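Allow me, if you will, to draw on your knowledge of protein folds for a short while. The matter concerns a single protein, recorded as an amino acid sequence and a row of backbone structure tokens. Kindly check, if you would, that the fold set down in the tokens agrees with what the sequence suggests. You will find the record immediately after this paragraph.
***
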Amino acid sequence: MKWVGLTGGIATGKSTAARLIEGLGVQVIDADLISHKLSEVGATGYEKILSHFGKNILNSDLSIDRKELGRLIFSSPSLKSDLEGILHPLIRNEVQKQKKQYEQQGAKLCFYDVPLLFEKKSEADFDATVLVWCDSQAQLNRLLQRNQLGIEEASLRIKNQLPMLDKIKMADYCLDNSGDTADLEKQIKKLLKTLLKTQEFNI
């Protein structure tokens, strides 16, 4: 099975690309989805996060207030590192479990949707890496709209990641999501044909 790392910048459309890939019948393992499940009330990650960050990050229903937790970690590199130290080992275990299942099912290709692939220097873990990017103004506009943040906080979140030009140079394949979803899907079909060495995905 070919193991492909799918990454991007915040609000560049990585999740949209992942949905389109899944829609074409290719397996995608989602790091963020796994992280959310591990952080649900009563889960292992939830208990560890609560123990470290305290009850001030909870909503009234005792679920984690992700907006408040995000505000904390993006304003403090040390707290961000603490959260990653809690969740990343748990995420890795679950990813390996899902990967093994797909291999046993005979999948020829599987994507791992992971936000900080290049930041964590994980390129060597994959047979190939794919970057979803868009121009900087589109990225900022999408983040402001999606997360309902002020410009200052949105800009801080973008700056917490590697510059997009650096990621473009590091990726094996790049998907430009500055346009619309139809254009992105065309690029994905072309990419899948390349990775699978097949004409199955007709554009």
Notes: Strands lie at 2-8, 27-30, 109-113, 128-133, 173-176. The radius of gyration is 18 Å.
